[in-house]
Specification:
The protein has about 220 residues and is mostly helical. The chain is built from ten helices and no strands. The chain folds into two domains: about 45 residues, Arc Repressor Mutant, subunit A (Orthogonal Bundle), CATH 1.10.10.60; about 150 residues, Tetracycline Repressor, domain 2 (Orthogonal Bundle), CATH 1.10.357. It is globular.
Length: about 220
């Protein structure tokens, strides 16, 4: 990998590319800085110079993926609100704007589909949704905008319920993408072998029903 990357990318980009590939394949804790620099054709001092530490490098890898996803989400929501003017946007369209950038990032990104699914699984399982400080402001803007859109379309939703249902919806998509093979194994093939696009349509239908469900108070 190092020989190919050295001719096409600068040192920070080579380090980032090597890091994300190795993290996806082996895990965040197992991969060392020497593993990364050996793959990138760089040295440990370069990691410290460009990123500061392994933890900061992990943050940079995470930001590289989540920032364009959130930017795409906001752009799609802008387009929907412009299209529907002052009318509520249908829930399935809001959900598609919220979730499809994740799918698009997987299918059109630098990583293969299988490798990015591994990366997602490790990010969720090993990092526990730990978000870098630098990406949190954009996440807050995105969450606020989508929460408002859902509440406009489903007036009975509280802000708290809207945010949790967004969280659940992302969890459904993440689990479907990273553990779809598990369902095929335990069902003995009865669950079929749907394409990623077909599975995504089912996720939207399932989550839209959950978003629109009447909120039940804890006392009830």
């Amino acid at each position: 990998m190092a020989e190919h990357l050295e001719g096409t990318l600068g040192t920070p980009d080579r380090i980032l590319r090597s890091a994300e590939m190795l993290f996806a394949e082996r895990g965040f804790d197992i991969v060392s800085l020497r593993d990364i620099t050996g793959s990138a054709g760089a040295n440990v001092a370069a990691v410290n110079y460009h990123f500061g530490s392994k933890d900061k490098l992990i943050d940079a890898v995470v930001a590289k993926h989540v920032t364009p996803i959130n930017e795409a989400r906001l752009c799609r929501l802008d387009e929907l609100e412009k299209k529907h003017l002052d009318r509520p946007v249908p829930v399935d369209e809001i959900l598609t704007a919220f979730l499809s950038p994740v799918l698009n990032h997987i299918t059109s990104g630098e990583m293969s589909e299988g490798l990015f699914k591994k990366f997602m699984g490790r990010l969720i399982g090993e990092r526990g949704y730990q978000l870098p400080e630098d990406v949190r402001p954009l996440f807050r803007v995105m969450a606020s905008r989508f929460s408002m859109a859902f509440r406009k379309s489903v007036p009975h939703l509280s802000e708290e319920a809207a945010l949790w249902r967004m969280h659940f919806s992302f969890g459904v998509l993440s689990n479907t993408l990273t553990h779809g093979d598990t369902l095929r194994q335990i069902s003995g093939g009865r669950a079929g072998n749907p394409s990623i696009e077909s599975s995504f349509r089912e996720v939207i239908r399932f989550c839209a029903a959950g978003i629109e469900t009447v909120e039940v108070k804890a006392s009830e």
